[in-house]
Amino acid sequence: MAEKKEHVKRGLKSRHVSMIALGGCIGTGLFVASGAAVHNAGPGGALVAYVLMGIMVYFLMTSLGEMATNLPVSGSFSTYATKYVDPAMGFAMGWNYWFNWAITVAVDISTVALVMAFWFPHLPAWIWSAGALAIIFTINILAVSAFGETEFWMSLIKVITIFIFLGVGFLTILGIMGGHATGLSNFTYKQAPFVNGIPGIISVFVVAGFSFQGTELVGITAGEADDPHKSVPKAIHEVFWRIILFYFLAIFVIAAIIPYTSPDLLGSSASDVAISPFTIVFKRAGLAAAASVMNAVILTSVISSANSGMYASTRMLYSMADEGYAPKLFGKVNKRGIPAAALLATTVVALLTFLTSFVGPKIYLWLVAASGLTGFIAWFGIALSHYRFRRAFIKQGHTLDELEYHATLFPVGPIMCLILCIVVIFGQDIGAFANGDWFEIAITYISVPLVIILFFAYKFTHHTHLIPLDEIDVSPANLENENKK
């Protein structure tokens, strides 16, 4: 008799899915690191880089949306790579993504302590980190709706902050706030609008890519969305326009008010709220409490990122157990539909990684570096999986009318994503290659050989192969039957 398959419960509403996808890509990358982007590439270079990366991410999301509405499953990237490319790739993608987010949770709870030190500099850092991890674990063990509701409100705080920032920023540019009009003079200041030419723009691609990472969470939420056929496409279209609007206008305001030569723009640490470009703009407008307010918003962003990371890594581990890539224990769910064993395992790894920051700082830095490029590797896997899915779908005699959602401009979209992901991955630290700094190269690119080792280890052990297009299973999921189980 076949073993009964355990399913996570669907409980994410449409508003949850939209806000999770939006909140996933609005964080310290925008609130802090955007200043460094303007400094390195100038106002024009930063805007070009973020818009191009935003367009690429949109194509990526439509690719993911086409697959996620056809087959909505938790831990989608691993499943799609397994079904549409090669089981070895699914194995490598799954462990790569789980590792990425498990380490990110550790990084974020460490950052919580740094952010809290702004208000409480004399209290031990571990207290805040331990408290943050406990809160995040509790949210994720309760129910998927608890996670969705928490993310909705934390993401809403970030969105409201951006609206206020844009309003204050434009009033400052016009001289209504801050005493004098800055106008657009900083766009033609010295070497502006384009600084350092093409290399400057490419360097910002990396920053922009990290800023946008998290949008792919919409693919994982599809497995627990109440109506993925409607909520996923809606989230993708809403998120694209909001991302372009928020990032483009926010960077425009920063570049107009703060000259690219300002040393204040060099800050790229989430802990240094005093040199967040948002804080600087608020101060220029005469808002005295700017630093405290932005510190609270950044704290919300960091906790939101850790919360999303815990959810994403837990669902990926659950999915891998379902595929046979991880122990079966991690594929079991409790009465509330939560993969509790997978959640506990992820929490333990995050906690152990966090502890290495005290007992072995070098080990901690290596782990953080190893997770650095895994998000781009996941994007590469999504694009490749979709390219092969659509080709197999058409080759097997299907028509696009059979799909619930169509990706935009196929095959341009996935091909552009594949090319840009390769550019970003290998352009991550060009300076290290130029200087022959092999230790720096090893630190930066360690995730690439790790994924290659995972891929070939599984391939040679299980004798897998690239699945021929006419053998790929492109059949859609029957959600009605699944929900009855």
From TrEMBL:
Residues 16-462 form the Amino acid permease/ SLC12A domain. The keyword Endoplasmic reticulum does not apply. PROSITE patterns: AMINO_ACID_PERMEASE_1 (PS00218). It is found in: Membrane. The chain crosses the membrane at residues 20-38, 44-61, 98-120, 126-147, 159-178, 198-218, 239-261, 281-306, 338-357, 363-384, 405-426, 438-458. It comes from the Bacteria. GO terms for molecular function: amino acid transmembrane transporter activity. Its main location: membrane. Gene3D superfamilies: Amino acid/polyamine transporter I. It is a multi-pass membrane protein. Keywords: Amino-acid transport, Membrane, Transmembrane, Transmembrane helix, Transport. One of its GO terms (cellular component) is membrane. This is Lysine-specific permease. It comes from Fructilactobacillus lindneri DSM 20690 = JCM 11027. The lineage of its organism: Bacteria, Bacillati, Bacillota, Bacilli, Lactobacillales.
